[in-house]
Design a protein that fits this description.
Elements lengths: L1 H43 L2 H7 L1 E3 L22 H9 L4 E4 L7 H13 L6 E4 L1 E3 L2 E2 L15 H7 L2 H18 L3 E2 L24 H16 L7 E4 L20 H5 L3 H5 L7 E4 L5 H4 L9 H11 L5 E4 L5 H4 L4 H11 L4 E2 L4 H14 L4 H14 L3
Parallel strand pairs: 1-2, 1-10, 2-3, 3-6, 7-8, 8-9
Antiparallel strand pairs: 4-5
Helix pairs in contact: 1-15, 2-14, 6-7, 11-13, 13-14
Length: 383
């Protein structure tokens, strides 16, 4: 009898081991296929197409006159002039804002036309955190349920609520044609005077933020929407706004590791990407340069020391902390050479594009680095 039981247990263990091995083999095979397809596509791309993949812009920026116009636009259909510009400047993706949205029908049509106009599948991105930052959720015409702030969700201590928030947001983003959400906020809100993060964060306890952010990301993934943890190395212990100008973080690296960095390090496995803040951390970088442009912060700390291997993107380069102190071309080149893979919304897209192409041609940008970033982008898009 004992012999039969031992044999039965051995058979069951063998079955589950075999299943686990098969699952791993299938996943590895799938990853190999994606890599080979991406490598093949990369080998066929022109220099301009490679540089283009680094940029995520507002659809408005396809208008050559956008730099002189403050108002955002919405279209029932993508203008022919924008389609023409997109062929000349084949960007890697688009980010949509509330003022780009008029109605359910219009938004679906705009996103579909942007995709159709691109040779390579574009990122369709949006800041959809829930609470006060929700481009779709806060657009009345779409009739979506408004979610509470992440601070309110964090205060419940119930990770299921964070998952439900991510899952609900993922469900309607997927329906409208989005594949990348710049959420959740992974900052630890430790400064009561913080006006830019505040209730966008899950709370002031790093462990709570870890649990909530991971659950939120799993909710997004349930609908095949990629997430983004932000704003590395932490924007929670600040009181000023990088949309306006320089913002300083006084802490050194050891102090950041005890609080601000905990949610980032412990969500790396679930995160599809990390967004770099424009905060300046001189006690870590040793320079008066925003983290988004600092090679020490991105390559030295995030990549090498913390071991993050995924996609890295800047916060919007059109924000005051960058725009007031750097030209669009120089900021884009600095951001890429610092270790970012994706350049988000430069103040002057065409100037940034021309600068990046020129830098790639004359060697100021490494061809090897360019290929590495583009390959990472293509794989993230499923090629």
């Amino acid at each position: 009898m004992k012999k039969h039981i031992v044999l039965l247990i051995s058979s069951v263990l063998f079955f589950f081991t075999a299943c686990a091995t098969l699952k791993t083999d299938i996943e590895n095979s799938s990853d190999t296929k994606i890599t080979k397809k991406a490598e093949q596509l990369l080998s066929e791309m022109t220099l301009e197409e490679k540089v283009g993949q680094l940029f995520v812009i507002q659809p408005d920026q396809l208008d050559l006159k956008f730099g002189n116009v403050k108002a955002y636009k919405y279209w029932k259909s993508l203008p022919s002039s924008q389609k023409k510009n997109l062929k000349k400047y084949p960007v890697g993706g688009f980010i949509i804002f509330g003022m780009n949205i008029k109605s359910e029908k219009q938004l679906k049509a705009l996103n579909a036309q942007l995709k159709a106009a691109c040779k390579i599948t574009p990122f369709m991105a949006v800041d959809e955190e829930g609470g006060r930052v929700a481009r779709l959720g806060n657009t009345k015409a779409l009739g979506l349920k408004r979610l509470p702030s992440m601070e309110d969700i964090g205060a419940t201590g119930d990770v299921k609520k964070a998952y439900q928030a991510g899952e609900y947001i993922g469900s309607y983003l997927s329906e409208y044609g989005f594949n990348w959400d710049y959420a959740p906020v992974t900052d630890v809100n430790t400064n009561p005077e913080n006006r830019v993060i505040g209730n966008r964060a899950f709370g002031s306890d790093p462990k709570l933020v870890v649990d909530m952010a991971n659950a939120y990301l799993e909710g997004l993934h349930a609908h095949n929407v990629m997430g983004c943890i932000k704003h590395f190395p932490g924007h929670g212990d600040t009181k000023d706004d990088t949309h306006e100008d320089f913002v300083y973080v006084a802490k050194n690296w050891e102090e950041l590791k005890k609080c601000e960095l905990i949610p980032f390090v412990n969500t790396f496995k679930n995160a599809d990407s990390v967004m770099i803040a424009h905060v300046t951390v001189p006690a870590v970088s040793g320079e008066e340069v925003p983290a988004s442009l600092s090679k020490e912060m991105i390559t030295g700390k995030l990549r090498n020391e913390l071991g993050y291997k995924g996609l890295i993107l800047t916060d919007a380069l059109g924000m005051g902390a960058i725009k007031k102190h750097y030209g669009s071309a120089s900021a884009a080149i600095m951001a890429f050479n610092a270790g970012n893979d994706v350049i988000l919304m430069p103040a002057d897209f065409y100037n940034a594009w021309d600068g990046m192409v020129a830098a790639a041609k004359d060697g100021r940008i490494s061809e090897k680095r360019l290929n590495e970033s583009v390959l990472k982008i293509l794989k993230m898009k499923g090629y």
